[in-house]
Design a protein that fits this description.
With 189 residues, the protein is α/β, with parallel strands linked by helices. The protein has one domain (2-140): 3-Layer(aba) Sandwich (Rossmann fold), CATH 3.40.50.620. It has helices spanning 19-34, 56-67, 83-98, 112-122, 137-154, 163-173, and strands at residues 2-6, 40-44, 74-77, 102-108, 126-132. It has a 5-stranded parallel β-sheet, with helices on both faces. Helix 1 (19-34) links the parallel strand 1 (2-6) and strand 2 (40-44). The longest helix has 18 residues, at 137-154. The two termini are 25 Å apart.
């Protein structure tokens, strides 16, 4: 079985997706409707806005429903705060449950290389990354390279086959999850 994972970007103070998030959702819809009918789609993202109590994963799900995807085919995970979290929580809460043969990851065009590297390190199946078109290409290149190097450094001693090891590294070494930047993530799996 195949599945689609759409990575969220931003939403406004009313919980409406920004243009880049909508673009990703539209591409995810197109891919989702082109693969087998037993497939599922996963949306990710936490409640990152201080002025709103809606996780972006729920806003993404709501938008996909307006595009015509049956709500029963959409799963959400509200733990992830970045691409690394997207991959880890996709593995633990989605891939490990269904053991998909192929995952289609949807993000933005400037973000495809880093996304592919991270997801391939974490999830042991065929990964295809699709990028929705933006005008951010070269503007984001240095940031993407720095983020990839930070991932490699942070996870250098991690056993990628062990969910326990992935979570330990995430919650002790990654600043978005260990309490350095945002509240420390508590995870009990």
């Amino acid at each position: 079985m195949k599945a689609v994972i759409v990575l969220s970007h931003l939403m406004n103070m009313h919980g409406q997706l920004g243009n880049e998030s909508k673009s990703r959702a539209k591409l995810a819809y197109k891919i989702f409707t082109s693969i087998d009918s037993k497939s599922l789609i996963l949306t990710l993202g936490w409640d990152y806005r201080d002025d709103l109590n809606i996780p972006i994963a729920i806003s993404m799900k709501d938008y996909l429903i307006t595009q015509g995807i049956d709500s029963k085919k959409i799963m959400i995970d509200i733990n992830s705060r970045d691409t690394v979290g997207d991959a880890i929580f996709s593995k633990i809460n989605f891939y490990d449950k269904y053991l998909f043969k192929e995952l289609h990851i949807v993000t933005s065009d400037y973000h495809t290389e880093r996304t592919k590297f991270i997801f391939e390190k974490i999830i042991p199946c065929k990964i295809k990354v699709h990028g929705s078109k933006t005008n951010q290409g070269n503007n984001k290149k240095i940031s993407e390279e720095k983020s990839l190097e930070a991932f490699k450094s942070t996870f250098s001693d991690t056993n990628f086959k062990s969910n326990k090891s992935l979570i330990k590294t995430l919650t002790t070494k990654h600043p978005f999850y260990n309490g350095s930047v945002y509240e420390q993530l508590k995870f009990s799996k």
